[in-house]
Amino acid sequence: xxxQLRKPALAVGAAFIISILASVDTTFAQVSFHRDxxxxxxxPTTIQRDSPANNRPALSGDQALMVPTTTPPLxxxxxxLGSIPAVSARQMSLVALASEQVELAKTPTGAQTVAQxxxxxxxxxxxxxxxxxxxxxxxxxxxxxxxxNYRSGAHGIAQALPADKMEIVAMDWRTNPITQIKWGLxxxxxxxxxxxxxxxxxxxxxxx
Length: 208
What we know:
By secondary structure, the protein is mainly alpha-helical. 56% of the residues lie in helices and 9% in strands.
């Protein structure tokens, strides 16, 4: 009977040893797999120093094209407006001056001042001609840039008819008195030659 009892004991012992070995192998495999994963998936980061004050990760391919280039120094007299193209201080002052003139011309006195400056710069009419112009446009609109004749459709300081003829100067003729003045002076110069001749026509027929 004793030899028969040894076989089960040996089988149990062998099974115990095999289970221990399997456990040791599995643990080792897990540790080995974990190490391989760390080595394969984690790569060192390369740092590219393009200036002492600006450190960026090195980029390549399409990523490099997305990095904005360094903005070159602006020339004297230019202002940095961020993403807006740089403009000169002189250009900005001209824009501000034009805006001030538009606001000035929205009053009758200011409109007459602007008209006189345009006459001096372009038409060189005499003081008598300026007086005729003042009389003419006082009769037409009282130098009111919002004046509108609902019966005929004439509009503005010079009472252009049809009003959209002023688009030859600018598209903002509805709200910009300077556009209206420029068109009116041009119209008088081309059609009559002088404001006094335009006024004479108006006195004869009620229009010019």
